[in-house]
Description:
Protein name: Intraflagellar transport protein 81 homolog
CATH topology of the domain at 1-123: Actin-binding Protein, T-fimbrin, domain 1
Pfam families: IFT81_CH
GO biological process, one term: cell differentiation
Number of helices: 18
Shape: flat
GO molecular function, one term: tubulin binding
Subcellular location: Cytoplasm, Cytoskeleton, Cilium basal body
Amino acid sequence: xxxxxxxxxxxxNQEPFRKNYNLISFxxxxxLQLLQLLSDxxxxxxxxxxxxxxxxxxxxxxxxxxxxxxxLKYKPxxxxxxxSAFRQGLVTGSKTVIHPxxxxxxxxxxxxxxxxxxxRFLVKLEVPAEFLQDDTVADFNKQYEExxxxxxxxxxxxxxLKISGLSTAEIRRDIGAMEEEKGQLTKRVERLKKxxxxxxxxxRMLEIARQLRIEKERQESLAQQKQEQKSQLFHAEQKxxxxxxxxxxxxxxxxxxKPDSLMKKLEEEMNFNSYLLTEKTPRxxxxxxxxxxxxxxxxxEPAMTQADLTxxxxxxxxxxxxxxxxxEKRMIKYEPTDSKFSMYRQQASIISRKKEAKxxxxxxxxxxxxxLERQMEQKSSQAHELEGSEVLTEDEYKQYVSKLxxxxxxxxxxxxxxxxxxxxxxxxxxxxxxxRQRHEAIQQQLQATxxxxxxxxxxxxxxxxxxxxxxxxxxxxxxxxxxDNMSEMVKKLNAMVAEKKxxxxxVIKELRQLRQxxxxxxxxxEEKKIQYDxxxxxxxxxxxxxxxxxxxxxxxxxxxxxxxxxxxxxxxxLEVQLQRAREExxxxxxxxxxxxxxxxxxxxxxxxxxxxxxxxxxxxxQKVVRESHGPNMKQMKMWQDFQQLMECKRECFLKQQNQxxxxxxxxxxxxxxxxx
Length: 676
């Protein structure tokens, strides 16, 4: 309790209260002063409670404080009976009630100030259900709840901004710096404008410079977008290639293996991973830890000189010599019974070393394979960028090789066929040569026969005549066909032209008439359009006027409807009051005393009588207090003076005891000196 009062006094002596209390003055406060102090603390939390309690009734003060403490979620200790005692103590200004409240309030003033601020906007008004049946009241209530939620969100954002570290002073400094920079820039711009105004066509040049700047910014943004899209495309291609490789591997595994082989591979991989996890990796970690420990130890030690190094090397040589001696002694003391165990140990050590070597080789092979896959992806991406075509995957390459093999077999077959045809061509060429030789021999015999008969050259002339006549007949046939075709074509064209002229003549007449009608209709359309525009303008003005009138009527209708609903609500409330008045009148006029006692009039009459009696008692008590106030104050002053007097006596007594003790010590010291 003393610590609690000490804390309250310290807080009240600080800002913003500045009460200048001490423990005695605070403990001697009257109940009315304690209530005023509690009201001041509550007023610091919520400005609406800055009230002089002498200007309001005690019931109002207690009700106001209890409402605010309920909003601040203060929980008084104890049960329901203790709660009633808490209310009574708050009304009377009891120290046992007010001191814990003050301690609780002063511990968390800033938090409670925020809670009281939020309570002004977040304490929901309870609207009776019969009023919520009205559409207008329900709409207002819904709008009220929506505004409450919006306030919650805004307050959360405000708190987050306060926590984010942006102080008002920093923002103001930044704003001031930016305003100064803005002023400098405006002055610079004005100077540049004055310089530019002397140049001819400066407006056009400024417009061109503005367009150039805009185009440059657009070019930069497009280049940045292009670079981002290229990087995205490159990453997507790499991802696609990795996915294709994984898909190919999975397909190969599915196509080339059976469930037994897959299980076997998985078991092998699981065994290898478990070996790495349980044996190899822990040993490597231990070795790394020991090496790190030794390195840290070396780093912690001071720098070593050459003499230290030589000493360490000599010590190392001595240790190696001792190890060799111990090995020799062990070999001398070698027992045959341990030969089998040593052999097994050697085999186990050899197998473990081989296992570690193979695991390291497998790990290195996997790392090499992953590095080669990465290199292959990089090379494929580079080839794709250089050539612009798709790089073949392994499956596509296999298909390509199989196609090449099939084409190679087909090529070999065709090559054999070409060889056979070439051989046959050689045979036919030889046959042709033989026949030509025979033909020349026959021609020579024929010429010799013609010379003998005196008609040399007859056969040649006959052949030439036959060939020329055949050519001439062919040319005549072609000419005749060409002339016939041309004459038929000319006839057809003339007929078609005549037909088209005959068919187009009425159409041309109609077209001329239609053109004339079109001109007339166009002129009439323009006139009608002018009339339509003028009519539309008039109708638009009328429509706007009617819309304004309709809008006013709708507003008036809404006002009348709201008035109707308000009157209806008032009517319903008046009916309820009338019904309550009838029931009250019925109960009051009832001959049954129990029924009459339940009437509101009787209840209020009893309450008024009780309150009047209570008022009389309180006035009498107030009169007694006023009469005894002067003597009581005088008595309290006397007790305070008495207390101060007793305090002075106690201090004097303590000083006297201290002086007596000091004098006794001095006398004892003097006696000791005399004895010596």
